[in-house]
Write a structure and sequence with these properties.
The protein is about 70% helix and about 0% strand. The protein is mainly alpha-helical.
């Protein structure tokens, strides 16, 4: 199975950007539907599988290389502020997601306040959402979907090619894949702008990582209803 995955990654640019995302989402969905302890323990599994997939992706997707810039830092912080600040002012995506109030990912409610297991799971989750999620999601949305909308043979479209229609459609897809759809759309627009501006995914990945890390820290610091952002 591993050999087949590697072979397909090397043969197909579409597979290399699409399949890791699908596997990652599938593990997330299975964990969420299972409930109980599985909901929590699926995240370390997803993180480990994601880390391995990124290692394999690096060999065939040259644009997933981390980079640092002032723009990436600013975008990451601004999107975090928008994600939290806009929350009371718009209806959530109840068409695709159930209301998570009361079934949010909070290991303290399952393993006990101050539990070592709970803290370990939280650290793993913040690590996963900061380091693992950005490369997988950016390769799928910003590298594959955006360019595929522009042209069927997406590898013929340069990463720095600007297409307004593709940018909006890709941002909408990214946004409505989240319960908090409005800041999700803003994310999609901002991260795509970084990808087009730089011609690679490095800054978009960094901005994505900063947003997610700040959300993770905010959730742990604030507690209460803030756990819905996990």
């Amino acid at each position: 199975m591993i050999a087949s995955f590697r072979e397909n990654m090397a043969k197909s640019p579409e597979y290399a950007r699409f399949m890791p995302f699908v596997i990652f989402v599938a593990i997330t969905a299975i964990g969420g539907m299972s409930g109980g302890s599985t909901m929590f323990w699926s995240y370390p599994l997803k993180t480990a599988v994601g880390a391995w997939m990124i290692w394999e992706m690096r060999k065939v997707i040259p644009e997933i290389r981390w980079t640092l810039s002032l723009e990436a830092g600013v975008v990451g912080i601004v999107i975090f502020v928008a994600w939290v600040g806009l929350d009371p002012f718009y209806p959530k995506n109840h068409l695709l997601f159930k209301d998570t109030t009361g079934s949010i990912w909070n290991p303290f409610t399952h393993f006990g306040e101050g539990s070592v297991i709970a803290w370990t799971l939280i650290v793993v989750r913040i690590f996963g959402m900061t380091i693992i999620v950005p490369p997988i999601e950016e390769a799928f949305y910003r590298s594959l979907v955006y360019r595929y909308i522009v042209k069927y043979d997406f590898t013929k479209v340069a990463m720095n090619h600007f297409d307004g229609v593709a940018m909006v459609l890709c941002a909408l897809l990214f946004g409505f894949a989240h319960f908090q759809w409005l800041p999700g759309i803003l994310c999609g627009l901002a991260y795509q702008w970084l990808a087009v501006r730089r011609g690679h995914l490095g800054d978009a990945m960094t901005a994505h990582a900063i947003t997610n890390f700040l959300l993770g820290v905010y959730v742990v610091w604030k507690g209460g209803e803030a756990w819905k952002f996990f």
